[in-house]
Write a structure and sequence with these properties.
By secondary structure, the chain is of the alpha+beta class. The protein contains three helices and seven strands; from the N terminus they run βββββββααα. 22% of the residues lie in helices and 24% in strands.
Length: 153
């Protein structure tokens, strides 16, 4: 993964860089729901819903010791966060779902494409007018030719 890839939490609220070994750590994350994204110009990664909450003690009360539980789930863009989706194993192992391809293959030469260009159509119409109209004019009878030129006898 390129070194310029970053882990982004909640659209830029928190950021972390990905280390060479593929690990990352986001510090000072608040309790509650967050959206974890990996910003990379080369690969597309799935978005992950992360829910951080305090662990409950055996008697059902929240612990004051500061221990938190983390539940991460894949999320579909445009849909609500579902608690029915399977929880991902911790530590998270995220793999790319897409490789972006910014280059397209160059098209070969095509005579049809060349003549479907509007400029070539205008040139073709002009050439037709230059070569065809004089021949049509030569075939006109002399009275029709005088009428076209606007001369009257």
């Amino acid at each position: 993964l390129a070194t310029r890839a970053q882990v982004v939490l909640n659209g830029g609220e928190r950021r972390a860089f990905i280390q060479k070994d593929g690990t990352f750590a986001v510090d000072n994350v608040k309790l509650g729901d967050s959206l974890l994204e990996i910003a990379s110009s080369d690969y597309g990664f799935p978005k992950i819903h992360v829910r951080i909450s305090l662990k409950e003690a055996a008697d059902g009360k929240e612990e004051d010791g500061g221990r938190a539980s983390i539940a991460a789930r894949y999320v579909q863009v445009g849909s609500e966060w579902s608690v029915n989706a399977p929880v991902l194993a911790y530590p998270l192992r995220i793999s790319a779902s897409d490789k972006y391809d910014f280059f397209t293959e160059r098209q070969g030469f095509s005579i049809i494409t060349m003549f479907s260009n509007p400029y070539m159509m205008m040139v073709g119409a002009s050439l037709l007018a230059v070569f065809i109209l004089p021949k049509l004019q030569a075939n006109l009878d002399p009275e029709a030719l005088k009428e076209l030129q606007g001369k009257k006898e």
